[in-house]
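[Q] Does anyone have a clean structure-token version of this?
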Amino acid sequence: MWFTNSGGDSIGRITTAGDVRIFRSPQINGPGWITAGSDGALWFGNSRSIGRITIRGSVRTYTDPHIGQPSRITAQPDGAVWFTSYDGDSVGPRGTDGSVRIFHCRGISKPSGISTGPDRGIWFTNSGSGSIGHIGADGKLSIYRR
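[A] Here you go.
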């Protein structure tokens, strides 16, 4: 199992035998949520960037001025990594080619949780408006309110 330690600027791994290994790097700064990628590496929200760590501990971060502070992160089977930016009122993927596409639209307000759905779309919570958002595989944004 992998875990983040935002106060200690590190990422850790604990085996089924109970062995713990801590990975530190100058690139790891306040890591948040972590998720397994389709390539076997782990992706995590970092301070103003998205990070990737291999099972051996090699770290790389990806920055973009539109990322903001990633609050949650999820991976898709095609290798894209989607994130929510609570402070940036945006949702977006980092594509397998390294590109970042930001959905910063009316209806997205303080997005938090995020998950890939069985429809290959992205579902996320909007804490600022008490709603659920969906971005379909076609890029269409829908907001659902009660």
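[Q] Thanks! Anything notable?
[A] DSSP finds no helices and 14 strands in the chain.
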